[in-house]
Amino acid sequence: MSDLRNLTLAQMRDGLKGKQFSAVELAEAHVSAIEKTNAQYNAFITITRDKAIEMAKASDAKLAKGQGGLIEGVPVGVKDLFCTKDVLTTAASHILDGFKPPYESTVTTKCWEQGGVMLGKLNLDEFAMGSGNLTSYYGTVKSPWMKDGKHLVPGGSSGGSAAAVAAHLAPIALGTDTGGSIRQPASFCGIVGIKPTYGRCSRWGIIAFASSLDQAGPLTRTVRDSAIMLNVMCGYDAKDSTSVPMDVPDFEKALTGNIKGKKIGIPKEYRPDGIDPEILAMWDKGIQLLKDAGAEIIDISLPHTKYALATYYIVAPAECSSNLSRYDGVKFGLRVTPEDGSLTAMYEKTRAAGFGKEVKRRIMIGTYVLSAGYYDAYYKKAQRVRWLIADDFNKAFEKVDAILTPTAPSAAFGFDYKPTNPIEMYLNDVFTVPTSLAGLPGISIPGAINKDGLPLGLQLIGKAFDEATVLNVAYALEQAIGFNTKPQGVAA
Amino acid sequence: MSDLIKGNTGEWEIVIGLEVHAQVTSNSKLFSGASTQFGNEPNMNVSFVDAGMPGMLPVINEKSIEQAVRTGLAINAQINLRSIFDRKNYFYPDLPQGYQISQFLDPIVGKGWIELDMPDGSVKRVNVTRIHLEQDAGKSLHEYSPKSTYIDLNRAGVTLMEIVSEPEMRSADEAAAYLKKLRSIVRYIGACDGDMEKGNMRCDANVSVRKPGGELGTRCEIKNVNSIRFLHKAIEFEAMRQVEIIESGGKIDQETRLFDSAKGETRTMRSKEDAHDYRYFPDPDLLPLELTQAFVDNIRNTMPELPDQRKRRYIDSFGLSPYDAGVIVAEQEYAQYYEQLTAKHDPKLASNWMTGELFGRLNKLGVTIEASPISSEKLGGLLALIEDNTISGKIASSALLLAMSCICAGAGGCACVP
Fold it and tell me: Would you state the pLDDT for residue B418?
């Protein structure tokens, strides 16, 4: 592997400034690696080689003049849920066949303004619905992590993003997180992923799954790189009514590593029966390391945690059933013309052909819970429980500065894993969903390697808009853990 | 009680409630910056938001909010400082998002009322249930091809106010008077141009019949009536239709009907069984709309004079009869014309000449006051001659007659113009 691809974002940034290498060299190293391995990993749906080289040249010109943004010349992979101007944008769905948006999302615009170099569009679960990157119309993504000589799933829905960063095909990637879609794949792939507070990043130009939960965030190999990326991605946007007009602090500066006296909450509800003992061991070790670093550990209770998954799987499908109504064959993407020429048949055939099984399932669940006679029993009740869950966190954060939990209940699984029902797959989100429902920031960092040689993730949850504390505690923990195992697929 | 219908089995009372859709006057749409200008080429006034493109998000237009609040204040209504936008979900090609953003449980304006001046001199108060804001849909065009339907999204996303009355009207006359009054109010305050021909104001009428004072009957909704005259006709037809069905032993099916203005009748559009389940829920792309009292007060303090206030002033200060005052204030253009006369002339004299001589002749000519061959200045000139006793009223009347029937049509250059 090229040495350049071993560098972190921060190292690339500094090396580019110091003229140790050029942005074009960086872009070339990554694009060639992607082209060489994409058949194996299938992490990218679209590779934008020409764009990458062109943007890198522009960055080199700026860098030569001593100019440039926060990530000038650094390659970036983009989850294919962000609309990118004139570049195929699919949401990994057949229904968006051939869709090239005439506009650029706010978050990607910010990335390019700060000097990011676009490598391409990354694979994901269809419309970000899934926990294994198994539902993409463009095929599954293989993680560079392997067991018994076989690739595992990268997690989802930002599976392409996580696999690409773990396989050093991109130093950083943009993801989105609705119920854990950044944090769970980061955990499965042994990298760092942060979902900032709901309202921190603009949703404008991100294809919507569940509007009240969707939030953009970065996947990186270090906490520092995540901090840098948050400074690139966050900020108020008048085009998104749910984005919050608040100043964005310098997150990288917040990384002092000093967490003396910080109060860290340990929720008792995150030890469900049957949880993998190796996960608990990793958690306990994380607690010990924080204690060693001078943090105060406080037992807390988040009593409504057990309702979070059910609540999420009502709220998110409800919103998705409405958000996905616009894919009707009338205006863009796929249209299947029926023989009888009728409008209803066009809708039915287009949507039947265009959406995959999991998306259809969620549209149907969402339609059901919003229907007359069921609205109060499901949607309305779920909204009420959602506020109870948020209130659990509010109360906890009166006593603590951050909360430490595992990210996912297991390590990555293989492609031969066949859940007996969809709920088994949904259980992957059990630790990440409560944070999403409460709109809080959450980060996943590699916590340990299990006996199979696979990474397990630790999650830190913070107060609303206090990403700085989350990042700094994560940074201290990252230093203490010293995780440096490379995926088998990359080390080989 | 002359409003009752005489059937074979006795008298029947009509019960009417109206839902008026008024297009809000604003330069841009409710949730996008696209223009609202009428008459542009199809799909010229369309933003990515209006077209329902992936990842696009709505942002509330403050002007639309202001207009709804102004309308609420004009009908003596409660302004809800917190209101919520909901999604009304259904599939239709002219609805690009697959849902209409509307307000369901928490509208921006609550209960209010307006007063109607009935021809017999009585005043009838009709309560308004609510006003909510919503997006208009686009238009399906069938005339371009025998096989395909084309879609024009110029209107998609334009702000509509839906003004919902209580079912308190008891005759087609009352319903027509209500619509007329409402139209007058929204035009006075500049919230809607009231142009029913362009569809900028249209109404749905809920009509049922019952034995006087009895239990409410099953109602039918007549959709999209686009003139006051048609509203009158549609209600009369519909009420008779219902009476005939009930009297011949049938029962009324709750349904949505259309008024066919060519045939002067209503007919079934869709039955209750075909009614949509709209799956309303709060739009997660929009936060609850919270207004400050200062925002509302500011609008209240800059309200123009309303028709009722102006009428009161004409009666109290000018000594006009309630009837004459009512006639003059009913249309904004009449009132403007009158105000121009009263600036220099005796208000009573001006009123007599306007409502008597001028209106009579405009009626005969079949022209509106804006197209009157006699401008307010010219009529003012005539009044001045009467006031200083240069001519008698009789001569003035003949002069006016001559002026309005002369081939010069008021343009001057001949002997007709005083």
Answer: 42
Q: Which of A131, A136, A158, A181 is catalytic?
A: A181
Q: Is the pLDDT of residue B416 over 80?
A: no
* Closest by Cβ to B284, choosing from A319, A371, A372: A319
In A92-162, DSSP assigns E strands to 117-122, 146-147, 150-151
Mean pLDDT, residues B133-160 taken together: 93
List the domains of chain A with CATH numbers.
3-258+411-491 (3.90.1300.10)
Strand partners, B259: B266
SS3 A86: coil
pTM: 0.94
Lookup: tokens for A288: 């010990």
Joined together, the tokens standing for residue A220 give 């990186």
Nearest CA in chain A to B285: A211
List CB contacts (< 8 A) between B277 and chain A: 371-372
Model confidence at B415: pLDDT above 70: no
Query: Is the CB of A204 inside 8 Å of chain B's CB atoms?
Result: yes
Token output for B49: 């938001």
Q: Please, which residues 295-334 of chain A have a Cβ atom closer than 8 Å to chain B? A: 318-319, 321-322, 324-326, 328, 330-332
pLDDT of residue B411: 56
Which are the contacts of A355, defined by CB distance < 8 A and separation ≥ 6? A93, A94, A95, A126, A324, A327, A363
Cβ-based contacts of B138 with chain A (< 8 Å): none
Per-residue pLDDT tens over the stretch A33-69: 999 999 999 999 999 999 999 999 999 999 999 999 9
Residue B105 one-letter amino acid = L
What's the whole-number average pLDDT of chain B?
A: 91
A157 noted as active-site residue: yes
Q: Is the pLDDT of residue A404 over 60?
A: yes
Predicted pLDDT at B274: 74
**Partners of B19 in beta bridges:** B164, B204
Look at residue A492 in the predicted model and tell me its pLDDT. 45
- Tokens in use for A218? 């970065």
Interchain CB contacts (distance < 8 Å): A and B: 95
User: Do residues A214 and A176 make contact, with C-beta atoms less than 8 angstroms apart?
Assistant: yes
- CA nearest A254: which of A470, A481, A459, A9? A470
